[in-house]
Amino acid sequence: MNKLEHIGIAVKNLEESNKLFAKLLGKPHYKIEEVEREGVRTSFFDVGGIKIELLEATRPDSAIAKFIEKRGEGLHHLAFEADPITDKMSELKSDGFTLLAD
Fold it and tell me: Which of 4, 17, 79, 99 has the smallest CB count inside 10 Å?
């Protein structure tokens, strides 16, 4: 692993959460994206070179909607930078880790 790339946090309401995190971190988000195939809208904050990604479901059948329904809002994932990623993914799988996506 080279570094922690971002921290993903599942939220019910992206607009409200953006306001909350802007107050907490002392600066606004720098980008919003919608990933239609995942059924999610995301917002990014930069904190000392590490991104915080807020994730809001856009469909009730999305992974984020199901996560919030089961566990509530909160930490969803940690994303690490690794090179080469395919080797690291194979290593983690063989060590028993469950990957969210191939």
Answer: 99
pTM value is 0.87
Sheet arrangement for strand 40-47:
31-35, 40-47, 50-57, 3-11, 74-81
In contact, 7 and 74? CB cutoff 8 Å:
no
The answer to whether the bond into 60 is cis (omega within 30° of 0) is no
Beta-bridge partners for 53: 8, 44
Q: Could you tell me the two tokens for 44?
A: 């990014």
What dihedral do alpha carbons 86, 81, 70, 19 form, nearest 10°?
A: -150
pLDDT for the residue numbered 2: 83
d(CA 84, CA 97): 17
Q: Which of 6-15, 23-32, 80-89 has the lowest mean pLDDT?
A: 80-89
